[in-house]
Amino acid sequence: MRPSLVLSLALIPALLAPGQAAAFDFGFVRVPDWMGPWILGLAAGMVPFWLFVVVTKPRHIAFRDVRRSHGEVARITRMAHGTMLVLFAALMAMIFVGMGLRRYAEAVAG
């Protein structure tokens, strides 16, 4: 097993640990504390699909062209790519909605 994979698998429980450490504030990207585990869970759920697509797609096909390459890419690879895109869209929606909720809470609180 590769050391980077072992390190990645070892860090997943640290990312999903409950509490204040799961909330984040990167300057303009601030979300409510309760959204931290959801966002980290979506990000951690997207990684296996990304790895699966990277490993199973042919070398001569770019990552962005996996969805359009019907004859050259296996159906399960296209399904994993679609699932990864859905998880990514949900992740981005959670981040943007979370930023709006946090800014609204700051504006109302005064």
Let me know the number of strands: 2
Strand order of the largest sheet: 1-2
Strand content: under 5%
- The level of helicity is 55-70%
- Structural class by helix and strand composition: mainly alpha
Number of domains: 1
List the helices and strands and how they pair.
Elements: H1 3-15, E1 25-26, E2 29-30, H2 36-56, H3 75-109
Antiparallel strand pairs: 1-2
Descriptors:
110 residues; mainly alpha; 3 helices; 4% strand; two-stranded antiparallel sheet
Describe this entry's structure for a reader.
The longest helix is centred in the last third of the chain and has 35 residues, at 75-109. With 110 residues, the chain is mostly helical. The model has no long low-confidence stretch (mean pLDDT 78). A two-stranded antiparallel sheet has the order 1-2. It is elongated, with a radius of gyration of 17 Å. 63% of the residues lie in helices and 4% in strands. The chain has helices at residues 3-15, 36-56, 75-109, and strands at residues 25-26, 29-30. The protein has one domain (3-109). The protein starts with a helix and ends with a helix.
Summarize the structure.
Strand 1 and strand 2 (29-30) form a beta hairpin.
